[in-house]
Design goal:
With 125 residues, the chain is an alpha+beta fold. Helices cover 13% and strands 29% of the residues. The chain folds into 2 domains: 81 residues, Alpha-Beta Plaits (2-Layer Sandwich); 39 residues. The strands form 3 sheets. A two-stranded antiparallel sheet has the order 1-4. The protein has a two-stranded antiparallel ribbon with strand order 2-3. Strands 5-6 form a two-stranded antiparallel sheet. A hairpin with a 2-residue loop joins strand 5 and strand 6. The longest helix is centred in the middle third of the chain and has 10 residues. The chain is globular and about 45 Å long. Bound molecules: iron/sulfur cluster. The site of iron/sulfur cluster has 14 residues, from loops.
């Protein structure tokens, strides 16, 4: 095994709210016994898209020895897992990710989704 970046979950801080599950495009995080877990390390690419979704600051990136990230494992995992997917919506306009590209964001202590059409006016006022 080589050293690489991978997500670290602080179980003491994790409340099991599940907000970090859907930002992970690889499906690497699941809630098990009330806590977020990286279910298989080869599914986590260490990109950290889940970090901003956590209201508790329970997620971070660490560098340590871990199995290499595997796109093939991700493909098989996403193909085989049961459909538990919940379509997300933009907090500003309410359009779903089926109509718009959504990005994770933080506002007033909340983890939210914003679409690419609503984001520029929010940035520039
Ligand atoms: S978002 Fe944070 S608190 Fe919620 S399940 Fe994920 S790690 Fe736990």
């Amino acid at each position: 095994m080589k050293k690489r970046q991978i997500v670290k979950i602080d179980a003491d801080r994790c409340t099991g709210c599940g907000l970090c599950v859907s930002p992970c495009a690889e499906g690497a995080i699941e809630i098990i016994d009330g806590k977020a877990r990286v279910i298989r390390e080869e599914l986590c690419d260490g990109a950290g898209f889940c970090l901003g979704a956590c209201p508790e600051g329970a997620l971070s990136i660490e560098e340590r020895e871990a199995p290499e990230f595997s796109e093939q494992a991700v493909e098989e995992h996403l193909h085989n897992r049961p459909k538990t997917y919940i379509v997300q919506t933009c907090f500003n306009c309410g359009r779903s990710e089926e109509k718009r590209i959504l990005l994770p964001c933080r506002k007033d202590g909340q983890s939210l989704w914003v679409c690419t059409r609503c984001l520029p006016p929010l940035i520039h006022g």
